[in-house]
Amino acid sequence: MSDAPIAVAMSGGVDSSTVAAILHAEGIPIVGLTMQLWNQRRLAGAPGMGESRTGRCCSLDDVHDARRVAERLGIPYYVVNYEERFERDVVRTFVDQYLAGRTPIPCSLCNTAVKFDQLLITARQIGAEKVATGHYARVRVNSDTGVYELWRGVDEGKDQTFFLWGLTQEQLSRAVFPLGEMRKPAVRARATELGLAVADKPDSNEICFVPGNDYAAFLKAYAAEQGMPLPDTSGELVTGDGRSLGSHGGIHRFTVGQRKGLGLATQPGGGGTALYVINIDAATRQVRVGEEAELHARELTGSDCHWISGEPAGAAVRVEARIRNRHVPAPAWAEPLAGRRLRVCFDEPQRAVTPGQSVVLYQGEKVLGGAWIDSRA
Amino acid sequence: MGPLPPLVRPRRASLSQARDRAIIGEMAVASMVRAYFDNNANTPVLPEILEDMLPALQGAVGNASSIHQLGQAAKAAVEQARAAVAELIGASPTEVVFTSGGTESDNLAIRGVVGEWRRRNASAPLPHLITSKIEHHAVLNVFEDLERAGYPVTYLPVNDGGRVGPAELAAALRPDTALISVMMANNETGVVQPVEELGAIARAAKVAFHVDAVQAVGRTPVRVKEIGSDLLSLSGHKIHASMGIGALYVGRRTQLRAQQLGGHHERDRRAGTENVPGIMSLGAAAKLAQANGAAEAARLAELRDRMEAGLVAAIPDCGVVGAGQPRVANTSNMYFDGIEGEALVIALDLHGFCVSTGAACSSGAIEPSHVLLAMGMSRRRARSCLRFSLGRQNTADEVERLLQTLPGLVERLRRLAPADASALVRSA
What we know:
The structure holds two protein chains of two kinds.
Chain A: E1 6-9, H1 14-25, E2 30-36, H2 60-73, E3 77-81, H3 83-99, H4 106-125, E4 130-132, E5 137-141, E6 148-152, H5 169-173, E7 175-176, H6 184-193, H7 215-225, E8 235-238, E9 244-248, E10 276-281, E11 286-290, E12 296-306, E13 317-322, E14 330-337, E15 341-351, E16 358-363, E17 366-376
Parallel strand pairs in A: 1-2, 1-4, 2-3, 4-7, 8-11
Antiparallel strand pairs in A: 5-6, 6-17, 8-9, 10-11, 12-15, 12-17, 13-14, 13-16, 14-15, 16-17
Helix pairs in contact in A: 1-2, 1-6, 3-4
Chain B: H1 15-20, H2 27-32, E1 35-36, H3 47-57, H4 69-89, E2 96-99, H5 102-120, E3 128-132, H6 137-148, E4 153-156, H7 166-172, E5 177-181, H8 195-205, E6 208-212, H9 224-227, E7 231-235, E8 246-250, H10 276-314, E9 318-320, E10 331-336, H11 341-350, E11 353-354, H12 370-374, H13 379-382, E12 385-389, H14 396-416
Helix pairs in contact in B: 3-10, 4-10, 5-6, 10-14, 11-14
């Protein structure tokens, strides 16, 4: 289909709005789609969930903003409802992971299971062949192998490849990232130049369905709504040598590297050194704390390893590995193991390797792949 | 690292091409000639009706309550329209109350009857109320609100053809039942309810009977005396009058408490300055329906039958909801197994056809239609349903174009749909 339109995933924010405006200005036929993923009214009013439904993903305000951009551009625009899919594949997984003592990344799940799956399906069903988004990332075709490769966006501060490593070749081949070559200030300038009302809209950084990033309150409200009491994950805070420092209210309240909110007035022994969460054991419900030095680890193992830009040739690959969105990728060896598992061995110990997060492998600007972190070694 | 491989760039179209292409790609041509098959959501104001109402918008009339001649002109126009609406439904003009539309008529009928009953029986326990599971939300949500306030409410089931059974109504009646409300033609399926039989039961039990006839008036004969209804709702924008106008028939002996207070408009039953242009358009639409509604219904039935037969013949695993039941001529609800109705509505829109999934109000909501579920349909099939609703402006040519377009779209949707959505979830 030579003249097949491109579907633009429009969130109502400045990035995706500018994508729509840029493609439109280039004369490319587009259709705007806004995903309705979560009904903000569902948990409104529950403790910690707030009453306001504005200013968040899928709020009426965001849909209104996206619609206004579409109107201004004169493009066909629709809101598509994926609430059921989003709840099953993203929200439920998010809840399960927290209760298992992990720290999940719903945005990655949303990209692979919703944005580049369900939305791409709808886009193709209605006649489009590709989906464009406001991600800061680039897709290139390797001219030697014909393999689609994921590359970091040129704006290092905004690069979003950390959340995209799970895409398949099929998904990558149908992804369009016009902002991958741009820096954020240029995007805002372009939005202003194109007269978009959202040009000055602030970036959203919180998880779209968790107001104020209060996970514990969300888990409680969601479990209550589902009529299933939260399993009791309370237990003990312990030191490295197994000494109990007291009790805690549930493992889902902790994440590796966390310092605040441990409920510990002083460091045992009175040294005054700060304590951090080192490890969360879902089976014993023990949260192990220790000094900052203990947070560092040289090795990690992951599962569901995926080589986004093609399988590696050798047994171990020289990479720069990133373990958090804003973590500076660190030199390491990545070794594929049986059963799609992965071992990453860093040259220097890295702080706060966190189960549930991703490890994403780079070679320079190219993304090689990633995996879900299971444990530090 | 070797030299950078080339960037993947979307294919570039020239600007002049883009200008020619108002909408997208090859769909642009189709979109120039739009076929509107969503007349249960709204009907276009017909030119002759617009002509009737225009003077009222251009200063030819004043406020119908004013003493001066322009006020008198407004009053005369309103009363003329009232007579036309009354004649269309077999009522007398004093029994017609103008409202802002179907939703207000339904609210006024239900709350008005219940409110008056309470005023007269202030010390009695809250009375029992009866409605059906397939009502429009303008009725359903009012009953649910009353239920939350403590009123016992019975929601009558329907059979798999989408009809309320008179026996079920008779069984649900209680000595303290104060109101029965059942629609005449369902907005999603077009299935016509046995309102005469229901009305006879209500009359025998001396219980007030409200009929939401928003999708029936103008499309099938509606005679309030034959139905035996005490109240009956109708709406202008479903019969080619303007939006924002409707009416409620209130039988001479029906006890109704006004829900909106102010001046002495509409014989103290509905305060507020009359929407004179709207009322004039409703009067004109009523006259038009009176004059040739039957012939138009016959024409639409023929178009609908052609459409349904053509689609069923061309598309496997599709069918007509409520087939074989009495239906208003203009409405067709069809299922297309294996697809999401929402995506098909978008695909059709991009090809120049306006249709809807079920009721307009429930589009975008995650729940499949309560009407289809009440008929015993699976959630999966209910989500595949599309509603085609015809109107006076639709032509046989438009139906033929739909028959040429829809089978290909359904085929594409099915081909690209996940066989089982859960199989697509990555282990991630």
